[in-house]
Write a structure and sequence with these properties.
The structure is a single chain. The chain is α/β, with parallel strands linked by helices and 514 residues long. The protein is 32% helix and 20% strand. The chain has 16 helices and 18 strands. The chain has a ten-stranded mixed β-sheet with strand order 11-10-12-13-9-14-15-16-17-18, sandwiched between helices. A six-stranded antiparallel β-sheet has the order 5-4-3-8-7-6, covered by helices on one side. A hairpin with a 2-residue loop joins β4 and β5 (182-185). α4 crosses α5 (135-150) and α11 (342-349) packs parallel to α12. The protein starts with 33 loop residues before the first helix and ends with a strand.
Length: 514
């Protein structure tokens, strides 16, 4: 009865079975009407945030703050104002669709054909049950159900918005997003925790991983490289928690960093020389400071003739060179066997004849193997790690090596760090949400038991404007001949480096945060 569509072209017609039992009749209240949407909430209760997938995201009224001088701006909540009756109607139609459709036949179709078949069946169900809906409401219902069956459900409209940086799902009824460094609550919601868990499992299964009660924590990625972390009950008490770190479709470059005020033009030129001249580099910063994005920018200046091997927990680096080998860790199986750690990958890289080794994030004992690689002919290797400053990044490296069980004196470890790492590039997310490269620091050597570093560029905060945006500038420290000068001269980049450092000595105008 359902799913037969005339003029379907070359796509095979979907064989649809009759539903077993009657389709649940939609009550008149199930019709989503403007009046129902505008109905006031119960006394004393805020309207429950709804999750229409295709609906526009609207700003909620501004909160009134009293008896507080100069209150900070409150991020506008996002609410699609969908009523409970909409979800009842959607549930009834979705149940009828699952009973009527042949999932085996559906799996044989490509995504576009499957979506069209589902839309036709849903239209027939709505017509047979005489569900009263406007055209726009019916289109929203069609999009919602198609996303539930073929995509990532309520996440689909958020994933399609390129300006969103992070999606944070705290159980089925609470979804936050980050835009421009500011966190906002949305009205998106899931049908229940089971639907959210199903979507988590759908995401992680695409990369050969699993998330369930026996393995409740999982790192994965979306097809576009966006990083995903899922943690489910019993560890997550209020339902599954899903975090998606989205990457923009248009990859950022250092020139765009300059336009955004994240780095000065002279600082960008120095970073280009660093990427080109095989300088061992560590990119440090706090969570959300743009470490992976900056590492992607630095890799753009690697020569196409070099063989690059990348090691990551969840593959998110997007290198453009032709000769790249991408490696990814593997969690243990149900029996607790078969785990491949980051350290295993880094050690294996040494046998793969790499010119450069790039580690997505250094978190543990693999720091020792990375330093060994940097110090044994793999110049230009790179990695990222969490730290609050360049000096703390070096201290964390030392701590991670000691945590790996190496019984080495502190001086030996520090000497290894000094001989392996040339430059530390530190990024930071400021309190106004903007991201800045705050330090370009090189490791000079040791004096006694202390590692000596010198800053080439630093970011100075001068104040803030009336809108609360940070005003600052990138300042050169006046170093005219950095330690990696010889490497720059070897690759013919010494004049370019000298020009950038000379230009940076001229006083810079304040750069307003964006």
């Amino acid at each position: 009865m359902f799913g037969k569509r005339p003029n379907s072209g070359s796509a095979p017609a979907l064989e649809v079975q009759q539903p077993v039992g009657p389709i649940p009749a939609a009550a008149p209240a199930a019709a989503v009407s403007p009046a129902a949407e505008a109905a006031p909430s119960e006394a004393g209760r805020a309207p429950f945030p709804s999750a229409g997938l295709g609906a526009p995201i609207l700003a909620a009224p501004a909160r009134i703050v009293t008896a507080a001088p100069n209150p900070p701006p409150i991020p506008a909540a996002i609410d699609t104002r969908r009523s409970e009756s909409y979800y009842e109607t959607k549930g009834a139609v979705f149940g009828a669709l699952i009973e009527a459709i042949d999932l085996a036949q559906l799996a044989k179709l490509d995504a576009d054909s499957a979506r069209e078949e589902i839309r036709d069946i849903v239209n027939e169900i709505v017509a047979i049950k005489n569900i009263v809906m406007s055209i726009s409401e019916q289109e929203d219902l069609l999009d919602d159900i198609c996303n539930d069956v073929l995509g990532y459900g309520p996440l689909e409209p958020l994933l399609a918005r390129d300006e969103i940086d992070d999606i944070m799902v705290n159980g089925s009824g609470t979804v936050y997003i980050e835009i421009g460094g500011k966190i906002q609550r949305t009205g998106i919601r899931f049908r229940d925790n089971q639907q959210l868990l199903n979507i988590c499992q759908r995401i992680v299964s695409q990369v050969g991983r699993r998330v369930d009660e026996s393995s409740p924590i999982c790192d994965a990625r979306l097809p576009d490289g966006s990083r995903v972390n899922a943690i489910v009950p019993p560890l997550a008490l209020d339902g599954p928690a899903l975090t998606v770190r989205k990457f923009k479709k248009d990859r950022l470059t250092l020139d765009q960093f300059v336009k955004l005020g994240s780095i000065s033009p002279e600082g960008a030129e120095v970073l280009k020389v660093v990427g080109r001249c095989r300088v061992n580099t560590i990119v440090s910063g706090s969570t959300g400071s743009g470490k992976t994005t900056l590492l992607n920018c630095l890799t753009r200046y690697i020569d196409d003739s070099e063989r690059i091997v990348t090691c990551e927990d969840a593959a998110e680096l997007q290198l453009q060179q032709p000769h790249v080998v991408r490696l990814e860790t593997r969690p243990p199986n149900l029996e607790g066997e078969g785990q491949i750690t980051m350290r295993d990958l880094v050690r294996n890289c040494l046998r793969m004849r790499p010119d450069r080794i790039i580690v997505g994030e250094v978190r543990g004992a693999e720091a020792f193997d990375l330093l060994q690689a940097m110090n044994t002919g793999h110049d230009g290797s790179m990695g990222t790690l969490h730290a609050n400053s360049p000096r703390e990044a070096l201290s964390r490296l030392e701590s991670m090596i000691m945590m790996g069980g190496y019984a080495l004196p502190s001086r030996t470890i520090r000497e290894m760090i000094c001989s392996s790492i040339d430059v530390v590039v530190h990024g930071q997310r400021l309190r106004d949400g903007s991201r800045r490269i705050t330090h370009i620091t090189e490791v000079v050597g040791m004096e006694g038991e202390v590692i000596i570093t010198q800053d080439l560029f630093v970011y100075e905060i001068l104040g803030e404007d009336a809108n609360g945006n940070i005003i600052g500038r990138h300042r050169s420290t006046g170093i005219g001949r950095p330690k990696f000068w010889e490497s720059a001269r070897y690759y013919g980049e010494d004049k370019r480096l000298a020009t950038a450092l000379d230009a940076a000595e001229v006083g810079l105008d304040p750069v307003r945060g964006q």
